[in-house]
Amino acid sequence: MKYFFILLCIGIAACNNSAQNDSHTTNSMNTEKQLPAQLPNSNDFTNTVDGKPVSLYVLKTKHLQVAVTNYGARVVSILTADKNGNLVDVVVGPGTLQGFIDSKEPYYGAAIGRYGNRIAKGKFSLEGKE
Q1: What is the dihedral of CA 9, 11, 12, 18, to 10 degrees?
Q2: CA 72, CA 116: separation in Å to the nearest integer?
Q3: pLDDT (tens digit per residue) in 72-127
Q4: How far apart are the C-alpha atoms of 93 and 111, rounded to whole Å?
Q5: Is residue 106 part of a domain?
């Protein structure tokens, strides 16, 4: 029981997370300048895949910018303001077409996957019109 109490005291003392400033060390987070978020370069998405042209399309509003590629309707980037008003990219994934092509997951980020266009010649009627 005596050893348990000693170990408990050591454990509690080790959990003390008080910050002590050392004048010889600097915090790299404070000294680095963060680059502003940017949309991907459209030249990285100008190519052909399986004989079909691929492009990057950008949709912009006052507070939001979205970059989408027609290669699987993938959302490549969404820039929005953080709590300080700085633009940040909230999309996780490759920032280039080659990154999507080389991905081990072929449908990563794709809105249109392997089942897209499966009813290519499908028809329906709406209010008597086909």
Answers
A1: 130
A2: 9
A3: 888 999 999 989 888 899 988 888 888 888 888 877 777 776 666 677 777 888 89
A4: 14
A5: yes
51 near 67, Cβ under 8 Å?
A: no
Two structure tokens written together for 26: 């600097």
Range of the domain at 72: 35-112
Q: Is residue 129 part of a domain?
A: no
Which whole-number Å values give the CA distances from 115 to 53, 72, 88, 108, in the listed order? 20, 11, 32, 14
Which of 36, 42, 81 minimizes the C-alpha distance to 61? 81
Number of domains in the chain: 1
Q: Give the whole-angstrom CA distance, residue 91 versus residue 81.
A: 13
Dist. CA 18–CA 27, nearest whole Å: 16
